[in-house]
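Re: [ENG-882] Designed sequences occasionally contain unexpected residues at chain ends

Forwarding the minimal case from QA. Structure tokens:
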């Protein structure tokens, strides 16, 4: 359950509240006892990468290492 803090306390204790949010807690900010905002972490849980998960999704053409055409080189070098 999220802790509820009034706006005045949120302003005076923002650093402490952010530390709590960094630990995974959610804080509800209320005005006159009514919730108006939710303070929560932006950290996203990352999925564990699986070896070979892109197999068959990436195609490298046979001429991948072939030099670029002049018009493309000119676009890069001016």
């Amino acid at each position: 359950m999220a802790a509820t803090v009034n706006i005045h306390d949120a302003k005076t204790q923002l650093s402490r509240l952010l530390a709590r949010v960094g630990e995974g807690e959610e804080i509800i900010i209320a005005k006159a006892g009514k919730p108006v905002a939710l303070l929560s972490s932006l950290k996203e849980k990352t999925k564990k990468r699986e070896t070979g998960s892109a197999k068959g999704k990436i195609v490298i053409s046979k001429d991948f290492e072939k030099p670029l055409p002049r018009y493309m080189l000119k676009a890069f070098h001016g």
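QA comment: On inspection the terminal residues look reasonable. DSSP finds three helices and three strands in the chain. Proposing we downgrade this to a documentation issue.
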